[in-house]
Design brief:
Length: 118
């Protein structure tokens, strides 16, 4: 049942993104930033944590989950370190995902040859 909940919640988040792409003139970059900021905002008002508890990876894998992770890390660091945690907490919380993206991106670039668009 966990897989079904994750699929439905993650799918609904992706549907919202696709609708924004199709029905508005927002660029993909603006939609990306909107989703990350939305994840931060929803975590701040206390809505995203219950969604993560319910859907698991369906809520943490999309871009809103990255915003949630940044906010959660910053909040934890501020409570432990004070004001300096504002600057270090989000980066510490997101470091694993960012490092994985860089490493896998590099490996794919080494293994495959890129082609120019025509």
């Amino acid at each position: 049942m966990d897989f079904v909940k994750a699929f439905i919640v993650g799918g609904l988040i992706c549907v919202v993104g696709q609708l924004l792409l199709d029905k508005t003139k927002l660029t993909p970059a603006r939609i990306l930033v909107t989703f990350v900021v939305l994840g931060v905002f929803l975590q701040l008002i206390g809505v995203y944590e219950p969604l993560v508890d319910f859907a698991g990876a369906g809520a943490t894998v999309p871009l809103t989950g990255f915003g949630y992770n940044l906010c959660k890390g910053a909040y934890k660091a501020v409570t432990e370190q004070g004001f300096l945690g504002v600057f270090t907490g989000g980066l510490t919380a997101g470091a694993g995902g960012i490092a994985a993206a860089l490493i896998f991106g590099f490996l794919v670039a080494v293994i495959f040859k890129s082609k120019a668009k025509k």
